[in-house]
Amino acid sequence: MTLVRRATAELLGTAFLVAAVVGSGIAAQRLSPGDTGLQLLENSIATGAVLVALILALQPVSASFNPVVTLVELALKRVTTTDALVLVAAQVAGGALGSVVANLMFDLDAVGISTHHRRGEGPLIGEVVATVGLVVVVFGSLRSARIETVAIAVGGYIAAAYWFTSSTSFANPAVTLARTLTDTFAGIAPSSVPVFVLMQLIGGALGAGLVLLLHPESHPEIQEA
């Protein structure tokens, strides 16, 4: 399978994921003004559902949509360094595209820099927890013989993590960067991004350690179509 195909799948998948996160956030704000809890419910359902669909559709090619997951794959020797760099670049580009498209779909400026500051120890701890859990769920699910297991597990986990983590579970550097480009419900101010991404990387490293502890046997590469 060519790297171009895999990078295209990562770009497309991350773009649709971010478009769903941002777009459903905008729709939620407009449909349920003044009710933050309902807005979050609408946002989380849409995000979880689109993850299931995108992973099912793109997993035969490539369906990480997340630099942390790709870096863990690199650590587990599932991808080469060159491949990882290309895939992460595609994820970041796809995320930015998804945010722009979501803004345009709802008649907003293509780029609106977010002013939603996300600070405090609680949300930062939440990002570590969210990312640890995501890595464990992804690489644990990959051991199943049924291809749909990963999609259902990841979609369900992210939908739940919107609620049980104080950060609403960004757990993805590419998505975090993309969400700086929309000054809406799902946005995050650029000044909040560096520490959020740092917490995600820490969570990814801890998650990788747990994967190796729980599944010490070899981690064969995913079968390619």
UniProtKB/TrEMBL annotation:
**Localization annotation:** Membrane
Q: How does it sit in the membrane?
A: Multi-pass membrane protein
Q: Name one GO cellular component term.
A: plasma membrane
Q: Tell whether Kinase is among the UniProt keywords.
A: no
Q: Which keywords does this Swiss-Prot/TrEMBL entry list? A: Membrane, Transmembrane, Transmembrane helix, Transport
Q: Which InterPro entries match?
A: Aquaporin-like, MIP, MIP/Aquaporin
What is the top-level taxon of the source organism? Bacteria
| GO MF annotations in UniProt | glycerol channel activity; water channel activity
Residue ranges annotated as transmembrane are: 51-72, 84-104, 124-142, 149-165, 185-214
- Family assignment? Belongs to the MIP/aquaporin (TC 1.A.8) family.
Kindly give the PANTHER family that the UniProt entry links to this protein. AQUAPORIN OR AQUAGLYCEROPORIN RELATED, AQUAPORIN-9
UniProt name for this protein = Glycerol uptake facilitator (Major Intrinsic Protein Family)
Q: Which organism is it from?
A: Nocardioides terrae
